[in-house]
Design goal:
The complex is a heterodimer.
Chain A lengths: L4 E12 L2 E12 L3 E5 L6 H8 L7 E6 L2 E2 L4 H5 L2 E4 L11 H11 L4 H14 L15 H13 L5 E5 L7 H18 L2 E6 L10 E6 L2 E7 H8 L4 H13 L1
Parallel strand pairs in A: 3-8, 3-9, 6-7, 7-8
Antiparallel strand pairs in A: 1-2, 1-4, 4-5, 9-10
Chain B lengths: L2 H21 L1 H22 L17 H31 L1 H6 L5 H29 L6 H28 L6 H14 L7 H7 L1 H9 L1 H13 L5 H21 L6 H5 L3
Helix pairs in contact in B: 1-5, 2-3, 2-5, 3-5, 3-6, 3-7, 3-10, 5-6, 6-10, 6-11, 8-9, 10-11
Classes of the chains: A alpha/beta, B mainly alpha.
């Protein structure tokens, strides 16, 4: 089966005033690939996400989503994108169903299709029976599940996850990690997952190590270990990031 | 992108805002209490102090309460516009604004839908206020209650667009107090909401000029005339132009290439 490029980034740079936040980034993600974006705080992960989602705009480099240029074909590109942001973006005073219906209306889905998709996604995450509860009543793990369900309602080709497991307990974290990998394997979804938690990586995942706005390493887990000459991802990560800090 | 997509998205945004408003009872009550306090307390106190001559659209001597009613309608919309702007800043800080901004529709359309939603809420508030005012013996011709609908839409959009523009400049929620001091209060007090221009001219020509050029004054006059079944063309055009200018500036403010979003930095 031929792999389709879901995300392609070339020579991407971005500065806040005079301070360079991203410097000549380039990588691509194919469908059916889970790519972990690793980097310490301030590495530029959230800036990169803001550029992919076009909350920010860069004058240097280009970003393509499923072949659509984010800058010139913004709407076609964004239609292919599902996002879970670091902070929760659900409306606390509305129910699970109302939050999801809001999302489906923003993506132009009709009532029948919307209700079908909502049921399908919530059932997969064991949340369907809680659809009429207000978000405020849900715990952190369940809120995250709702956000993941929401990001998938319009059937995106690429799912962006910006540290979605921060602040969650271990079982909730593991459940999300497992679910996302299952989506990659079964639905051939492309995933870009920003994280600083090394134990969320599966052996078949791809890695991008970002530090001070530059890509320090990229490739499969094995390739990164080989390049850095280390035995574990943890060692590879420290050798790539702390060396720079010293 | 089909027409249906735009339609569904707009109703999604408007419906969400209306639902939030109806379920947030405190917000509904506090939005009404403010103009009612002005009507019942302030107007009653100033009734004796301010003598009003007969000026259009009024055809006879009127009570001060009657005079300030359109001003208080404007006040409801002004505060609502600023409240929407506050919620935009809050949404941006909390992140929920991002969900709106990353959906596959043009940004101007999303901002306009958000504005329409806020205006819809303010029109609801205005009609509830007018119903209460009716029982306080403030009556306008019944057709006037229909005539003001389009003017409320335009004034609500204009004041909402101003709020939207301000929200594109405000970096943090804490800075919002400045908006109260430097935008809402001067706009409200330096207008024809509480006193007519000729009255203001008696004490300061300069202030009366400022009030005349204040778009809030023009919105209030547009509403005042419409409530008495008259069309104030000058006020209408002035408000419309102000809306278009504020809206265009707000769209630029929210444009990732040109606006304030990039300058704000961090995410």
């Amino acid at each position: 089966m031929s792999l389709q490029t879901a995300l392609s980034i070339e020579n991407l740079s971005f500065s806040y005033g005079g301070k360079k936040a991203l410097d000549q980034l380039g990588f691509s993600i194919n469908s059916g690939e889970c790519t972990l974006l690793l980097g310490p705080n301030g590495a530029g992960k959230s800036t990169l996400f803001s550029l992919i989602t076009r909350l920010y705009d860069s004058h240097e480099g280009q970003i393509e989503l499923c072949g659509f240029n984010v800058k010139q074909q913004t709407r076609q590109a964004l239609a292919k994108l599902g996002v879970v942001f670091q902070q929760t973006t659900l409306d606390m005073d509305l129910s699970v169903m109302q939050n999801l219906r809001y999302h489906t209306s923003l993506h132009g889905l009709g009532r029948k299709v919307a209700l079908q998709r909502i049921q399908q996604e919530l059932e997969r995450l064991n949340m369907y029976e809680r659809r009429f509860e207000k978000i405020r009543q849900l715990n952190g793990g369940h809120r995250r599940r709702v956000e993941i369900a929401r990001a998938l309602l319009h059937k995106p080709a690429l799912l962006l996850l910006d540290e979605p497991t921060v602040g969650l307990d271990v079982p909730s974290r593991l459940a999300i990690v497992e679910y996302v990998h299952q989506l990659v394997a079964e639905e051939k979804l492309a995933v870009l997952w920003a994280s600083h938690l090394i134990d969320e990586i599966y052996p078949e995942d791809h890695l991008i190590v970002l530090h001070k706005g530059q890509i320090k390493a990229k490739g499969t887990v094995d390739e990164v270990l080989q390049t850095t000459g280390t035995m574990s991802i943890k060692d590879a990560f420290y050798s790539l990031t702390q060396g720079e800090q010293a | 992108m089909s027409f249906l997509h735009y339609w569904r998205a707009m109703w999604g945004i408007v419906g969400r805002e209306l639902w939030r408003f109806v379920t947030q009872r405190e917000r509904f009550i506090s939005a009404l209490v403010r103009p009612l306090v002005w009507l019942f307390v302030f107007a009653a106190g100033f009734r004796a102090a301010l003598g009003l001559a007969i000026t259009p659209p009024y055809e006879t001597y009127i009570l001060y309460e009657v005079y300030i009613t359109p001003g208080l309608i404007g006040m409801i919309q002004l505060f609502n516009g600023m409240q929407s702007s506050l919620s935009m800043v809050y949404d941006r800080e909390m992140g929920s604004m991002r969900i709106l901004m990353v959906c596959p529709l043009p940004r101007w359309f999303l901002l306009l839908s958000k504005l329409l939603a806020g205006t819809g809420v303010s029109i609801l508030q205005v009609y509830v206020f007018l119903a209460i005012a009716w029982f306080y013996d403030i009556h306008a011709p019944w057709q006037g209650y229909l005539w003001i609908m389009p003017t409320l839409l335009l004034s609500g959009l204009m004041l909402g667009a101003l709020g939207l523009l301000l929200s594109s400049f405000i970096k943090q929620l804490e800075n919002f107090a400045g908006v109260m001091n430097f935008v809402i209060f001067p706009m409200f007090f330096m207008s024809t909401a509480l006193y007519p221009l000729w009255k203001m001219k008696e004490s300061s020509v300069f202030l009366s000029k400022l009030a005349e050029y204040n778009p809030f004054s023009q919105a209030v006059e547009m509403i005042r005339f419409a409530l008495y079944e008259q069309f104030d063309q000058h006020a209408f055009i002035y408000t419309l132009v102000a809306f278009l200018l504020f809206m265009a500036a707000a769209i630029i403010g929210y444009n990732p290439s040109k606006g304030m979003m990039v300058k704000k930095g961090g995410s």
